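Today's session is about reading a structure prediction critically. Students often jump straight to the picture, but the first step is always the sequence itself: look for stretches that repeat, for charged clusters, for runs of hydrophobic residues. Only then move on to the predicted structure, which in these notes is written as discrete structure tokens rather than atom positions. Here is the chain we will use throughout the hour.
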Amino acid sequence: MSQSTGSKTSDTAEPFIRRNYLLAIIGNGTLFIAANRLADPATVIPLLLLRLSGVGWTVGLGYAISMLAPPLPGMLAARWLDTAPSKRRVFNWCSVGRFTGAIGVAITVLLAGVYGPQWYRWALVPLLGFFTLRLLAQGVSSPAFVYLLASSVPSTMRGSYWKWRQFTGLGLVLLFSRPLVRFFLSEDGPYQFPTNYGLLLLLASLVMGLSWLLLAFMVEPPGRPAGRQLTWAQHFARGVRLIRRDADYRRLLGAKVLLTAASSMSPFFIVFAVEDWLFPDYVAATFIGVQIVSQLVGSWISGYISDRLGNRKLMITAAAVTLTTAMIAGAGGLLTPEGGITVAGAYVSYRMMVIALCFIGYGLHQSELLPAYQNYMMDIAPRRKLPSYMGFASMFLVPVAVVPLLFGWMGDIISYQSVFFVSGMLSLVGLAIALRMGEPRDDLMDES
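Below is the predicted structure for this chain, in token form.
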């Protein structure tokens, strides 16, 4: 049984705010997921960086920024987020920053198309700058949003929130996002590189802006913030104390760090397919479709496991899926020959099957890891200290930012198969740690 740093508020005693529940599903789910797939971090963004720079390490740099930029502001902001009277107002201002960053990336890519190939590499500087701005704002908005969600939805309904969030969002992706990606990135499409990417990112930023606008109408849940703002010394001392005293918090962080590091292999699935197996760029739309269907199925599985079996078991499932995906990618990359088979009159190459299996695993991983992590965190954290729990936890992801850079170097110098096997080893250790986590919902039910 884990030791707690303070008395925990029973989730079963908290109100269910239907308005927040529905707005979170539509704004943070349906619209945001659809928009995010137009600028998919595992396919569209890696291909854009690869085409602009011509080298694989920029893919690792972009992924490293996506993990490095959010943690620091999240940890620093937790000191005043704990005492902020309105978490919703904080979230709304951060949404403005996120939209500015998203629209800035799109405009940068469009301007690169205007000025020509000699400006492609120079465009990487403002592109990554706006990308970082969006992620810095995200680092502060995420703890605020999780607080609003934790105070509005009880533990036994959070799995359902994730299920409907992903199911509706991915349904919209299948209907609109995937066809749009294929339309813009097709070799015979109406727009040339990089204008096609710029228009795709512009559309994504506009839909993201609509999703954040809807979330601005969430209501502030009942409750009171922490009584006083800690000094910086007290703030950092609290972080050390949380790690030392709460064994479940410590194990959750260990599992999350290792599995996040392992998932750094995901941008290299499409890079490996394009660079080593010479697949065309537009297959990104096919793999997005495979990943979406996998994530749709996974959302129902993760919702069931979270609500009925607990978030510890969901974390274990996520670790097992990540390990299996890494082994398929590594072994398949080494052993899969050319050629294929005919299924229902359609020819399918063996190598296409391997990459499709990788994206199936990645889709299941996406549907499980984040819900397991956030739901488990909401189960173990005292409500008024939840921003601090989230902020300090995010700081442990900072060292993980070097992993995609290392993977990018390994892919260029050694092989992409080596990237996948290293990810498999990280997943194995993460699985071992997840198996040692306790089930906090037992304590919550005892308190109710």
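Discussion point for the tutorial: The radius of gyration is 21 Å.
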